[in-house]
Amino acid sequence: MAKFDRTLLLEMLHDAIGEIAVFVLDLTVSDSVMPKITVILDGPDGLGINECATISRRLNRRIEEHYGEDATYSLEVTSPGADQPLTDPRQYPRHIGRSLALKLQNGTEKTGTLLNATPEGVEIEEVIKVKTKKTTLPAAFYSFGDLKEAKVVISFK
Questions:
Q1: Cβ(116)–Cβ(96) under 8 Å?
Q2: Which member of 35, 108, 116, 131 has the lowest number of beta carbons within 10 Å of its beta carbon?
Q3: CB–CB of 39/22 below 8 Å?
Q4: Contact 85, 149 (CB under 8 A)
Q5: Which residue ranges in the chain fall short of pLDDT 50?
Q6: Residue 38, Cα to own-chain centre: how many angstroms?
Q7: Which domains does the chain have, with CATH numbers?
């Protein structure tokens, strides 16, 4: 059974991505009888099934070239689900105008519209409920260091 080197797999993955406008969020290798290589990618405009399939084929080819065709593993190339937290500053810009739920390092929680995203942090316009009225607070900036977790609030309007 092949022992997969994560660093080597990341090099192969970056090679497989090539000119496709995506970035790596995570690459894991399970330690089981049949190792599972899971790659989570995202892009400035999201990630489509065609990009996932192309990268998966390219990466699979590189793995087989290096580890041999008899290497036993499963490969999953995917994008983060809609309910997954945002983990990379490059994910935020495409969500400008959407509502985010933030959990801060100090334990407080904020929900509001994402107004701006920079490499340093995010600016949101928080909406709070006072009795039965919703009030919008002035925009506030939160650095990525202040954020423990950020999720897009999924709305079915």
A1: yes
A2: 131
A3: no
A4: yes
A5: none
A6: 13
A7: 6-78 (3.30.300.20), 89-152 (2.30.30.100)
Query: What is the per-residue pLDDT across 112-141, written as a single tens digit (0 to 9) for each?
Result: 999 999 999 999 999 888 888 888 889 999
Q: Report whether 113 contacts 75 (CB < 8 A).
A: no
Lookup result for tokens 């970056």:
14
**Chain centroid to CA 153:** 15
Q: How far apart are CA 60 and CA 15, in angstroms?
A: 12
Residue at token pair 């000119």 = 19
Distance in Å from the first CA to the final CA of the chain: 50
* DSSP type of residue 27: E
Q: Which residue in the block uniquely carries the two structure tokens 């059974």? A: 1
Distance CA 153, CA 66 (A): 42
* Residues 128 and 137: beta-carbon distance below 8 Å: yes
- Across the chain, which distance is largest between two alpha carbons, in Å? 65
pTM equals 0.84
Q: From 85, 92, 150, select the one nearest 120 (Cα to Cα).
A: 92
